[in-house]
Every structure is written in C-alpha cells, then in structure tokens.
Specification:
By secondary structure, this protein is α/β, with parallel strands linked by helices. About 40% of the residues lie in helices and about 15% in strands. It has a single domain, classed as Rossmann fold (3-Layer(aba) Sandwich), CATH 3.40.50.10130. It has a 3-stranded mixed beta sheet, with helices on one face. A 3-stranded parallel beta sheet has the order 4-5-6.
C-alpha cells in the first residue's frame, strides 16, 4: 500500500499534541470515587480521587464518559427493587447504558439473597427476577462480590485493563498517523484545534 503525503489544504490540521503520552507507560489509572458514596471501598493498588460522577459510584479519571461501576450492598439492592427506589435506580442504570464498560457490583453472597436473608417483605424470587430484567434491559452485567475487599480488587482489575486497552488504541492511532506522514513534512499543530473541528468532520 502506497501512502500519499498530506495535501497543502490538510497541512496544519494535525491532532492536538499529547506530549505527555511519553510518560503514560509509567503511569497508573486513577480511580474516581463519587463524593456521594457513604462508605467508599478501600483500594490498595490504584490511586484514588473524590469526584462527582454522572453515572455510577466508581470510574477512571478522564474516562468517566466510558467506564462506570455501580456498587450496592444486599440490603441496598433489595430496596432498589421496590417502589420509588426502583424508579430512581432504573434511571441510574439508564444513564450507564451508553458507556463502553459498566458493571453493577453487589457486595454480598448471591445464595444469601436467594435465601431471603435480608430485612424486607419482597420475596427472593421477585428480587432475582428484577435483577435478571435489569441486566438485560440496561445491558449491565451484575457481579456478586463476597466482601468489600473482593469488590475493590475487581474494580481495580477492570480499571487497569480498560485503561490499558485505551492506551493500546491510542498507540494504534499514533502508528497509523505516523505511517500516513511517511515522506511528508510533519503537519504543524493548529493554534486552536477546536476551530477546525467542523471542517474536519
């Protein structure tokens, strides 16, 4: 495949320079903990910052529009299956639907939920049926984590692998851009790339 150099009209329309990418390999993704979390999970391997999240209780800094984890206890999730709490929770799940990676993490043991070991009149059958419906309706996998520590480890693992995938995609884009500029003068970076956005696409 022969790569053609950019035309004169295309020069000066390069992507905004991200010079910090050189240090990205030595960086860790930063978890964002929603400021409304009353008893946040404790993380051992990734740094954290508080923040106000549009979706979920945990996300990755700068990737909040792509990644969200909603965390509930057994008592919480039972309450979310009834009345006004159900409508509010469905709105939350609806906000997460368009994200690339989302999970509902229930801290507790599924067998305890199935056995009705909670303080509510709603039957275990109704709770489990509601969770099955939510999982399908909002395209959000539901994961049970036996303890808060297990939940924290899962979130850290997901965040690290998701961030790794984003970096790999950025590297692929970089290689593609470099290949297109073979034999051509490197395009200059525009002073205000936002002004060019409508012209490009």
């Amino acid at each position: 495949m022969t790569l053609t150099p950019p035309t004169e009209a295309a020069k000066g329309r390069g992507l905004p320079a991200l010079r910090g990418l050189g240090t990205l390999a030595d960086s860790l993704p930063v978890l964002v903990i929603d400021s409304r979390e009353q008893a946040p999970l404790e993380f051992e391997h990734l740094p954290t910052v508080p923040g106000t999240l549009y979706s979920g209780d945990y996300s990755i800094r700068a990737l909040e529009h792509l990644f969200a984890i909603e965390r509930k206890s057994l008592e919480d999730i039972v309450a979310c299956c009834m009345g006004e709490n159900r409508a509010r929770f469905e709105r939350e799940l609806g906000r997460m639907r368009g994200l690339h990676f989302k999970r509902l993490v229930i801290v507790g043991i599924r067998a305890e939920l199935a056995a009705g070991q909670y303080r509510s009149r709603i039957t275990p059958k109704a709770v489990l049926a509601t969770l099955n419906a939510f999982e399908v309706r909002y395209d959000t996998p539901i994961i049970f984590a036996e303890t808060p520590r297990v939940a924290a480890e899962l979130i850290e693992r997901w965040a690290w692998w998701f961030a790794r995938e984003v970096v790999q995609n950025a590297n692929n884009l970089l290689r593609g851009c470099q290949g297109a500029s073979v034999g051509a003068r490197r395009a200059s970076i525009p002073q205000d790339p936002q002004k060019l956005a409508p012209q490009i696409g």
